[in-house]
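Most newcomers find our protein records easier to grasp once they have seen one. To make this concrete, we reproduce a full record directly below:

…
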Amino acid sequence: MVEFSEQRLGSLVSILRRRGIILPAFEIHGGAKGFYDFGPVGGRLHRRVIQHWVSHWLKNGNIVELSCPTVTPFQVLEASGHVGEFSDSMTTCNSCEEASRADLILEDFHPNPDALSMEELQDLLERSQPACPSCGQSDWSSVELQNLMFNTAIGSGKSAKAGFLRPETAQGMFTSFPSIYRHFRERLPFGALQVGKGYRNEIAPRQGMIRLREFNMAELEYFIDPEAPLSEEIDGWSEPVNLIADGKGEESLTFSAALKQGMIRHTTVADFMSKTMTFLVEVGIDANLIRFRQHEADEMAHYARDCWDAEVYGSYGWVECVGIAHRGCYDLEAHENATGQRLRAWRGFSEPRIEQVDGWTIDGAVAGPVFRGDAGSIKIALEKLPADVSFPLEVAIDERMVKVSQEHVKRVQRTESIAGEWYIPHVIEPAFGIDRIIWHILDHAFNDTGKDGEEYSMLRFKAAVAPVDYCVLPLFEKDGMGELALKIHQRLCAEANVVSILDGSGSIGRRYARADEIGVPICITVDHQSVEDGTVTLRQRDDGSQTRINISDLTS
């Protein structure tokens, strides 16, 4: 088991910066908190993790990939609830004027401060007097809510519309539901995934890659019929996993067993938890350092049916890296109510039903020019009314009351043979924090001890995500060895999905060490014999073993 010490963390951070893996952004201008660069090595690691994530979910066969804008109109995030609810509690140190999240600085004084009201947080802050993380003083301002979204304007001048940098990738997939529904020939279940940037103006970004203001997200929205029969088959990880359910103690169970016991409340949630576990282990996270924690009732979103976090242990303790939520029909319903557009799927009945329809609908010819953009929402509201209402009356549209008169409506009375019904699909959402996952890949791959306990740094990446596949090393850059090494390097780079680097500087031992520091699985050494008989030496990163093979066999 890895021992996560401060000294080890310091050594890892030093290598990440020195070798161009992860380093603070804009450093020559003094940097900016909450922003990091993936350098010349880290950029490739970042890309390979994302490629593996996308491939992992596309194998499901009924999932497509989308790419939506990162700038989002105000109306979209107002409908989703982000404008009104996407906030954290903030307090400011009166001594150094550094802002902090109130719930985070109170974690040592309450088991779950994130679940407390503003008044309860204020009372706990005054009673506990925690030390400021920046200056150590305990003089705090009152607690207030801070919306975390970055404001922007869409357009110029007086015609500009309010917007935000997106705080998540999910909303673009919800607003694209009609297109995805048509793509899958109107048959559920199906899903859409998206990988991209998210932006949250965090109050106090700390702990390196754990809390960022610009970050990489990977989310999947999986649309299901809530009344469809459920299979109990779970794909992916079949070994017992540590689960913490309903705030109780940790228990080791398989996902199938947890589903049968009712601990996990939906088959698709259990299936996605299993597939998430498989993905995390495939990219190099230690299976023994992963646990799944179920949200307690007071921390779960009001619309959520079930929610589990995949937490990974490392240098910063237990960190949430994935959230898997059963979101019910909240998102599609919210956008439908806000726009009047139908975001529903069709469910056919086994036999037609005869129904008497007696109610109201909008008279489009009269009401359309009067209500304009509100006409669709008013139509939906009217069709929900009973037959015995009288006009004029007021209906609620976007928290406004709109007066509807008799001339705007018409009576609907008929007998219908109903073949099916429109319903709002439910959504299961696995949401991955790619930066946090990459951090833990690095944290778990880092080995800072060589033979006999001497200091020797190595990153033991899984081959699937190693940023560099081969390092080609000419023993000397003379007698034809340098030219042959260059040809081998260029040949490898021409292969699909292969990354090679060429290093001819310094002693061969030091070059092996540099390759180990960035996790290159295989080094290829070109020596005098290579020039003579066309063979090279393959040196394995993890055990240092060496094998002689023909150059022609390299790509196989």
User: Anything to note?
Assistant: The two ends are 34 Å apart (CA to CA). Residues 87-147 form a domain with the Herpes Virus-1 fold (CATH 3.30.40.230). The chain has a mean pLDDT of 93. Residues 42-58 form the longest helix (17 residues).
